[in-house]
Amino acid sequence: MTPPPAHPLAPPPDLPRTLGALRASGWQSVPVAEELRRNAAARIAAGSPLVDGVLGFDDTVIPQMENALLAGHDVILLGERGQAKTRLIRALVDLLDDTVRGRKLRPGPVGRAEPLRRAARNAVDDSGDFSPCR
Question: Do residues 96 and 30 lie in contact, with contact meaning Cβ atoms separated by under 8 Å?
């Protein structure tokens, strides 16, 4: 009998399980805007389209979105219904690293060295490098 398949949102088994292991892996927290900028720049340099599934905006909206992402600007999309605003924003998720794609976004990665909640800060203070990352 074969084991049941892993849950589709289950984290890969090779991820670090403690804060110490996460730090030892060389991982560094970066703001989402920086992650988007870095991955957009790589995609543009490779000649790949910034987003897939958005048609008709190659000379207008897409270059403006590229400029905004590269400059780290905030973006507000305005337009009539059916103008692909939601499709464009949903496509930008593909510019996030694999550890975020397909999972609910949080203010920071789980297990970050500077937790936002008091209970998490207390747990890191108590357990140090042995604090769980998930």
Answer: no
Cα distance from N-terminal residue to C-terminal residue, the chain = 29
Tens of pLDDT, residue by residue over 84-117, are 899 998 888 888 876 544 444 444 444 445 555 6
Residue 3 lies in a domain: no
The rounded Cα 45 to chain-centroid distance in angstroms is 20
**E strands, the chain, in order:** none
Q: Which two tokens stand for residue 85?
A: 């605003």
Residues 6+ apart with CB under 8 A from 96: 32, 35, 36, 39
Read off the pTM. Answer: 0.60
Residue range 66-78, pLDDT digits in tens: 999 999 999 899 9
Residue 12 belongs to a domain: no
Q: Is the model's pLDDT at 44 over the cut of 90?
A: yes
Exposed/middle/buried for residue 17 (C-beta within 10 Å: 0-12, 13-18, 19+): middle
